[in-house]
Amino acid sequence: MKEIRKAARELMAGFCRVCPVCNGKACAGEVPGMGGLGTGASFMANVEALARHTFNMRLVHDITEPDTGAELLGMKMSMPVLAAPIGGVAFNMGGKRTEQEYITAIIDGCRSGGIIGCTGDGVPPFIHEAAFAAISAADGHGIPFIKPWEDAELYDKLEKARGAGASIIGMDIDAAGLITLRKMGRPVSAKPVEKLREIITRTGTKFILKGVMTTEDAKLAHEAGAHAIVVSNHGGRVLDHTPGTADVLPKIAEEMKGKIEIIVDGGIRTGGDVLKMLRLGADAVMIGRPFSVAAMGGLTEGVGVYIESLRTELMQAMVMTGTRSLKHLPSDLLH
Questions:
Q1: What is the pLDDT along the chain (335 residues), one digit of tens a residue?
Q2: Residue 247 within a domain
């Protein structure tokens, strides 16, 4: 990982510093780029909220090979981790890799590592075109996320996503805050529950709604027919001064666990962070910026190395907390 991060730092110069701790402080306001919007408070809140939770160490047990396996939306996974949908290599990551190189590395690296890669959407069209091509080449192994466009563009992209072989499709409704797209003549917008129900029914696949930060929106997502939600503030890139996702997740999980599958992103960097979020109520996690660094710095191999690093850290955290399986987390795992 040290070599991969070094290569990424050189390739992403001016767009991401590849800091030793990815916490949003050095890159506050750098959008486009990999930073958080405005003061960067929402990005930083994600990291800080997760850091406030600490582990209870438990070492009087016989666990040596904990089970990291999981299942999400009918998919068996080597661990409950997805690479978050991120696109726009040219204007967010420096453009030293092509969009196709980047997203192929994400999709193929995740497939080899037994987890799922997600793809992003945006302007210009080669962002979603590269995404759909990578998913198609991987026999449909990947989850495309489509922005909440107006009808003509939205339904066209949803149909193309299905044509690429995707059996699960998502919408990052949190992208509704990207006013720059509206200024470019490509408006995105929030969607009422009736419209979401229409979209999900017409899509005809399992559907994930990303950008849920309240119990009320989680209930409405369930009412609309979504199969999963992502508790997410879009990496702190669309609204300044939101709470961290680890702060809102427990309340959402208390209300919605078992009714809809719950994914969370925001500030997750290590295998230990994955374990924390699962105990706070998530069924799986999404990780964004670290996967971007891995893909930029080492392409498919870099993604694979990062996945194995995560798995090692997750297993270590499980051993150190007396956690035999992710299906049965100790009630006292967190302090």
A1: 999 999 999 999 999 999 999 999 999 999 989 999 999 999 999 999 999 999 999 999 999 999 999 999 999 999 999 999 999 999 899 999 999 999 999 999 999 999 999 999 988 899 999 999 999 999 999 999 999 999 999 999 999 999 999 999 999 999 987 766 767 778 899 999 999 999 999 999 999 999 999 999 999 999 999 999 999 999 999 999 999 999 999 999 999 999 999 999 999 999 999 999 999 999 999 999 999 999 999 999 999 999 999 999 999 999 999 999 999 999 999 99
A2: yes
Return d(Cα 140, Cα 20) in angstroms, integer: 35
Domain around 246: 70-320
Question: Is residue 42 included in any domain, yes or no?
Answer: no
Q: Do the domain assignments include residue 272?
A: yes
Please check whether residue 28 lies inside any domain of the structure.
no
Please, is 189 exposed, middle or buried when counting C-beta atoms within 10 Å of its C-beta (0-12, 13-18, 19+)? middle
How far is Cα 79 from Cα 76, in angstroms, rounded to an integer? 9
Q: In whole angstroms, give the CA distance from residue 218 to residue 231.
A: 9
Q: At what angle do helices 215-224 and 193-203 cross, to 10 degrees?
A: 40
Decide: 235 and 242 in contact? Cβ < 8 Å. no
Q: 281: which residues sit within 8 A by CB, 6+ positions away? A: 249, 250, 252, 253, 254, 257, 262
Give me the DSSP letters along 79-126: SSEEE-----HHHHS-SSS-HHHHHHHHHHHHHHTTSEEEE---SSTH
Q: Give CA–CA dist 321/298, Å, rounded.
A: 32
Instruction: Tell me the C-alpha distance between 110 and 304, whole Å.
Output: 7
d(CA 134, CA 141): 9
The tally of domains found in the chain comes to 1
SS3 assignment, position 169: strand
CATH number of the domain that residue 269 is part of: 3.20.20.70
